[in-house]
Structure formats: C-alpha cells, structure tokens
Amino acid sequence: MTKLIDFYFDFISPYSYLAYNKLKSLNKDNKININYKPILLGGLHNLGGITAPAFNERKMKNMKNDCELIANKNNIMFKWNTKFPINSLHLMRGYLLINDDLKEKYFDFCFDAYWKDNVDIGDEKNIAIILNNIGFNKENFFDGIKDLKIKEKLKDLTKKAFDKDIFGAPTFVVNNKIFWGQDRLDYALDEYKA
Predict the structure, then answer these.
(1) pLDDT for residue 92 is more than 90
(2) What is the dihedral of CA 136, 31, 182, 178, to 10 degrees?
(3) Cβ of 73: how many Cβ atoms within 10 Å?
(4) What is the 8-class DSSP label of residue 52?
C-alpha cells in the first residue's frame, strides 16, 4: 500500500499557505505522496465549539507576527491580507469541482492571490480572474459550486475530519497519526519516511 500524507487545508488559513509552500519546495521531485483534503475551517470550528483566532484580538495580533516570522525564515513570499477573514466556502467547494489536472494551479493561484498579493478572493470578480488564469470556465464554476453533491461533499469531508479529532488547518495525517500545524510538517514527514 502506498504511504500518503493527508493534508487538511482551507485557503483562509495562513498557516495552510505556509505549509503548502514549504511542502511544495520539499517535494519538487514528487516523491512525497500528498492527499489534499479540503475542509471548511469555519465549519470545523463550529463543530468543535472553537473560537477562531481571527475573532480574538490578542491571538490575531500574534498570528500576524508569527506568520511573518515563519515566512521570512522559510523564504516564502507572504503578505497579511487586509480582508482577513473571508468566507472561503465558494473556493473550497471549487477545489472539489476543478478538474484534477488544474488543481495544482488552482491551489497556487488561490493561495498566492490571498496570502501573497493581498487580493480579496471572497469577491466573485477576483475568483473569475483566478479561473481565467487557470483555464476553467467561470459559469461552470459558479453553477457547479451550487450543486448539492458538491455542497454535501465539502460538508462530509469537514465532518469526517472532525470525527478524526482534527480541529484546525493545516493538519497532516500519516499512518493514522495527527500532526496539527505548519510547525509539525517535519514530524509528519519523519513519520512518512519511517
């Protein structure tokens, strides 16, 4: 059986962006098998009764500084988005809808627009620009994210993550062991290589 790193993420999470960039730089040869698991972070927090750091002024201030430190240490281009937090529902449903051969581009454009270029990716006009850049029809996208199957799939993935005791993003799961946070990526990779 092929070993996998399950990577639970939401585009709204700056730590998911930082982990994604670090993992991408470590996996240039594609030797690490990554299974991307989209979740709706707000929904996950609601299920767990968790107040997100975005709604705690002291945590929010520290989170901004922390993300900048991590980005600088890892040479990752990063800019705190002035529209944080946004509702990522359309983008996360969109990940489930996008063709497999476009998923990596979708990842890059969504994450970079929000966490590097300070773009409001909650705005449909900006989503349409991303879709144009990756070559995906915007009408198909905006119709598709309203499809009941796509809606239920994201809910189901979020609920399954909650049922596994996942409570934040990013979370990595290797050999049924949970590694929460971008700072646990190295531990997840150690488990993957063991």
Answers:
(1) yes
(2) 110
(3) 10
(4) P
Q: Give the chain's radius of gyration (CA, Å).
A: 16
C-beta neighbour count of 149 within 10 angstroms? 9
Tokens, residue 134 = 């990756």
Mapped onto helix, strand or coil, the DSSP state of residue 123 is coil
Q: What is the rounded distance in angstroms from the CA atom of residue 151 to the CA atom of residue 185?
A: 29
The token duo for 113 is 């627009």
Nearest to 170 by CA among 27, 20, 66: 20
What integer pLDDT is reported at residue 58 of this predicted model?
80
- Distance, in Å, from the CA atom of 106 to the CA atom of 130, rounded to the nearest integer, reads 8
Q: What is the pLDDT of residue 27?
A: 87
Which of 129, 130, 125, 114 is CA-nearest to residue 82? 114
Contact by Cβ (8 Å): 37, 7: yes
The count of C-alpha atoms lying within 13 angstroms of the C-alpha of 84, restricted to the half-sphere facing its C-beta, is 25
**Tokens standing for residue 144:** 């598709």
Packing angle, helices 14-26 and 185-193, rounded to 10: 40
Stated pTM of the model:
0.94
Is 3.40.50.1100 the CATH classification of the domain at 5-193? no
In 3-state terms, the chain is what percent helix, strand and coil (to 5)? Answer: 60, 10, 35
